[in-house]
Amino acid sequence: xxxxxxxxxxxxxxxxxxxxxxxxxxxxxxxxxxxxxxxxxxxxxxxxxxxxxxxxxxxxxxxxxxxxxxxxxxxxxxxxxxxxxxxxxxxxxxxxxxxxxxxxxxxxxxxxxxxxxxxxxxxxxxxxxxxxxxxxxxxxxxxxxxxxxxxxxxxxxxxxxxxxxx
Length: 166
Prior knowledge:
The protein is mainly alpha-helical. It has helices spanning 11-44, 49-77, 79-86, 92-103, 127-143, 146-153. It has a domain at 1-77. The N and C termini lie far apart (48 Å).
């Protein structure tokens, strides 16, 4: 059975297609979970229906604009470079806390709804010994207080250093 345009794709193009399909699937799942959680958010945060609609609209429009903007940047500067630079957005709670403090009359919920785990890695070709060295180095930097001191030195509030088993 021939599937038209799909049959004409190279293996790299097919992998790209399925990666995009997976990304869109996860993105739509994210939007669906947000929509399903909206009644809970309305109750907990005392939101009106119009506030909830505005929040949902802003979320979807922001997602679309962010994807469009990141795509344009990736076309111009390269996907890897853009991804590396946009990774700094992972510290969004800290920025929200600063903005809420400036604005006044706002608060952030104390509970985590998501934890962002940072990671380090190296090519598999370097072998198990290099991987163990890197793991030991990371644990040593955490245990010595170097990571916590770097967070404090750069005024990063609200972030924590994971324990050995985290």
